[in-house]
Design brief:
Blueprint: H1 2-43, H2 48-63, H3 72-93, H4 98-119, E1 126-131, E2 140-144, E3 163-168
Antiparallel strand pairs: 1-2, 1-3
Length: 171
């Protein structure tokens, strides 16, 4: 009987520890999404300095993801995207030039969208939005925490240019 209780206790302890580790890693991945949204919101204000500050926070959030606490599947997925997320956030944090920041934001968004979809890290619905006039008329996407369009590529010039292309529901 003592062996059964001991085995149960050990199993329960491992389960609780892995559950907390999973919650911790999910929170850190969600912090990356939250920091990305701050960058997007800063771009809508047309302030390169605000974008730089938000990009620094994003860069730190990416760096703080506890790789050792990710599940094997999360680790594999995160490794596909972390380097590109870091690269583009680093460029955005190292300049106050809004157009350069917006260029990096386009690719940052593509990578963030793929990572978010693969990892299921959103804790609220996320809106995948598109402006057909951005990127010299080629169009560009961004992620938003709200359905209302607030364009990061044209900021105050054309704040409502764009539409929602997809709603990424919480899973």
């Amino acid at each position: 009987m003592k062996k059964v209780i001991l085995a149960f206790t050990l199993t329960a302890t491992v389960f609780v520890q892995s559950t907390f580790a999973q919650a911790d890693s999910n929170q850190s991945l969600n912090n990356v999404l939250t920091a990305y949204l701050k960058v997007k919101n800063a771009l809508t204000t047309d302030s390169g300095d605000s974008v730089r500050t938000a990009a620094k926070e994003l860069f730190k959030a990416i760096d703080k993801v506890p790789m050792e606490k990710l599940s094997a599947e999360q680790h594999k997925i995160w490794m596909q995207y972390a380097k590109d997320l870091s690269f583009h956030s680093e460029h955005m944090k190292d300049t106050g030039k809004l157009e350069h920041q917006r260029e990096h934001f386009m690719t940052l968004t593509t990578v963030m969208y793929k990572a978010m979809k693969a990892l299921n890290i959103n804790t609220t619905d996320i809106y995948y939005q598109f402006c057909p006039m951005a990127n010299e008329g080629k169009g560009a996407y961004w992620l938003s925490e709200q359905s209302k369009i607030s364009n990061p590529y044209f900021g105050k010039q054309m704040p409502t240019c764009g539409s929602t292309k997809e709603i990424i529901k919480v899973k």
